[in-house]
């Protein structure tokens, strides 16, 4: 392997084969295909990252490639399964909440039927007793006035 710009020999006496990994100066390249005498490949910076979308395509391919769960599930499948599981659990929680609220309402109704205390009835009785007290108070006041009138007439 020779640096074409400087002519420096980077690796010498290396037997190349299909799939070999070549590492040099922090770069790693995998060569595929059948090597032939005179083959040339160039490694250089891709200025402004134009004309090469291989990495983006590889990343997009991960969406449907089995990389999770021991290679059995893709990101898409795992995401769909997670979303479905969250939806099912949420629905179960809503159903459980409705059941628990119903049980609470029944328990409160049973407690009130046993204890005999109904706040609406108690409030109505309180108003009725207040009105009766006020009526009796007027009767007593009228009786006192009558009695005073009789005493002053004598």
Order of helices and strands: EEHHH
How many extended strands? 2
Structural class: mainly alpha
Binned strand content: 5-15%
The major β-sheet equals: 2 strands, antiparallel
Q: Give the uncertain stretches in residue-range form.
A: none
Rg estimate, integer Å: 47 Å
- Which sequence of strands runs across the widest sheet? 1-2
Number of DSSP helices?
3
Approximate helicity band = 40-55%
Oligomer type: single chain
Broad shape: rod-shaped
Average pLDDT number: 86
Give the end-to-end Cα distance, rounded to a whole number of Å: 145 Å
Structure description:
This protein has a domain at 75-146. 55% of the residues lie in helices and 6% in strands. The model has no long low-confidence stretch (mean pLDDT 86). The protein is built from three helices and two strands, in the order E-E-H-H-H. With 154 residues, the protein is mainly alpha-helical. It has helices at 54-61, 75-115, 119-153, and strands spanning 20-24, 27-31. 0% of the residues are buried. Strand 1 (20-24) and strand 2 form a beta hairpin. The protein has a two-stranded antiparallel ribbon with strand order 1-2.
């Amino acid at each position: 392997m020779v640096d074409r710009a400087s002519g420096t020999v980077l690796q010498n006496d290396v037997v190349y084969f299909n799939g070999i990994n070549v590492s040099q100066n922090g770069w790693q390249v995998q060569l595929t295909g059948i090597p032939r005498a005179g083959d040339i490949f160039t490694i250089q910076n891709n200025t402004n990252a134009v004309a090469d979308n291989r990495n983006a395509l590889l990343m997009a391919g991960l969406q449907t490639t089995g990389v999770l769960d021991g290679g059995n599930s893709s990101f898409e499948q795992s995401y769909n399964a997670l979303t479905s599981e969250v939806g099912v659990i949420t629905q179960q929680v809503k159903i459980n909440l409705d059941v628990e609220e119903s049980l609470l309402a029944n328990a409160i109704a049973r407690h009130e039927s046993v204890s005999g205390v109904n706040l609406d009835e108690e409030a109505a009785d309180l108003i009725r007793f207040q009105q009766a007290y006020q009526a009796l108070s007027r009767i007593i006041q009228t009786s006192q006035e009558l009695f005073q009138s009789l005493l002053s007439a004598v």
